[in-house]
Write a structure and sequence with these properties.
Blueprint lengths: L7 E6 L8 E6 L2 E8 L2 E6 L13 E3 L2 E3 L6 E3 L15 E7 L2 E5 L5
Antiparallel strand pairs: 1-9, 2-3, 3-4, 4-8, 5-6, 6-7, 8-9
Bound molecules: FE2/S2 (inorganic) cluster.
GO molecular function: 2 iron, 2 sulfur cluster binding; dioxygenase activity; metal ion binding
Protein name: Naphthalene 1,2-dioxygenase/salicylate 5-hydroxylase systems, ferredoxin component
Keywords: 2Fe-2S, Dioxygenase, Iron, Iron-sulfur, Metal-binding, Oxidoreductase
Length: 109
């Protein structure tokens, strides 16, 4: 579905990410993990900083997603790896419009 603003990329129907779920989506040229925490969507880089595991195929508990490969955990609101001060996944603006998830890959301005 085309979007009126090219900054925003369509990442699929909003109902594919119910509260408590995390999914993997291809957004532009990125793989993104999109999580729904109590009705609020968050989007972070979906390729794990450890060895490239699929974060979007992990398990979400509260605000924390666990990579399915070796268990690294990230805060989906910030992209921070929970045990490190320095490891941080890129995070992206995300919104729902007309029942579609839209993700911006632009750095926050
Ligand atoms: S690849 Fe994600 S924890 Fe190892």
């Amino acid at each position: 579905m085309p979007t009126p603003d090219s900054t925003w990329h369509d990442a699929g129907p909003a109902d594919q990410v119910p509260p408590g779920a995390v999914i993997e989506a291809v957004v532009g040229d990125r793989i993104v993990a999109i999580a729904n925490v109590e009705g609020r969507l968050h989007a972070i880089d979906g390729i794990c900083a450890h060895q490239g595991g699929p974060i979007g195929k992990g398990r979400l508990s509260g605000c924390t997603v666990t990579c399915p490969w070796h268990g690294w955990q990230y805060d989906v609101a910030t992209g921070r790896q929970t045990l490190s001060q320095t490891i941080r996944q890129a995070s992206f603006a995300v919104k729902v419009q007309s029942d579609r998830i839209l993700v911006s890959l632009e750095p926050p301005g």
